[in-house]
């Protein structure tokens, strides 16, 4: 369950999931890891450069890639002169009729200087940092875990 597009894309968004635009974080249940909004709502910028062939390169190298660091540079064959970074998770504009990249494992890309209302970012901190902030802030801290 995620904030995606319902209706006939692009002219009629019925908002059957309760939102025709972005939704506040936590409007939908977390996944089994306790993570909110991993799919839908807004595309999330990643620090990895985008290369269309990156995962194939990893597969060709053999073995299992665990937390791959991403390529050292960017290359998108459809726009070879444009440096792009990875975007994950899809957005409220994704629909089965047009874009299924809101599914886990889906990957998009964009120029880092691009601004639009369906792209955002995720704040990340380690569990020890979260625990220290909770201790420091007492009952005034946020109530959700950093995940
Ligand atoms: Ca929606």
Description:
- By secondary structure, the chain is α+β, with helices and mostly antiparallel strands.
- The chain has a 4-stranded mixed beta sheet with strand order 5-4-3-6, with no helix packed on it.
- The protein is globular.
- The two termini are 17 Å apart.
- The model has no long low-confidence stretch (mean pLDDT 89).
- Bound molecules: calcium ion.
- The site of calcium ion has 7 residues, from loops.
Report the span from N to C terminus. Answer: 17 Å
Q: Low-confidence parts lasting 5 or more residues at pLDDT below 50?
A: none
Described by the principal axes of the CA atoms, the overall outline is globular
Q: In DSSP terms, counting alpha (H) and pi (I) runs of 4 or more, how many helices?
A: 2
Oligomer category: single chain
Q: What is the structural class?
A: alpha+beta
Portion of residues in beta strands equals 5-15%
Helix fraction by DSSP (H/I, runs of at least 4): 10-25%
Strands side by side in the biggest sheet: 5-4-3-6
**Distinct bound molecules:** calcium ion
Taking all residues together, what is the mean pLDDT? 89
The secondary-structure element order is EEEHEEEH
Give the beta-strand count.
Answer: 6
């Amino acid at each position: 369950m995620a904030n995606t597009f319902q209706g006939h894309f692009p002219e009629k968004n019925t908002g059957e999931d309760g939102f025709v635009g972005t939704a506040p974080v936590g409007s939908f249940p977390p996944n089994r890891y306790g993570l909110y909004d991993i799919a839908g709502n807004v595309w999330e910028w990643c620090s990895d450069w985008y290369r269309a062939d990156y995962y194939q390169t990893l597969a060709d190298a053999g073995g299992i890639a665990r937390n791959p660091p991403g390529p050292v540079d960017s290359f998108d064959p459809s726009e070879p002169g444009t440096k792009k970074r990875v975007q994950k998770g899809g957005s409220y504009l994704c629909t089965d009729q047009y874009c299924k990249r809101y599914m886990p494992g889906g990957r998009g890309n964009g120029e880092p200087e691009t601004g639009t209302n369906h792209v955002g970012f995720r704040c990340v901190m380690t569990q020890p940092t979260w625990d220290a902030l909770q201790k420091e802030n007492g009952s005034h801290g946020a109530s959700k875990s950093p995940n």
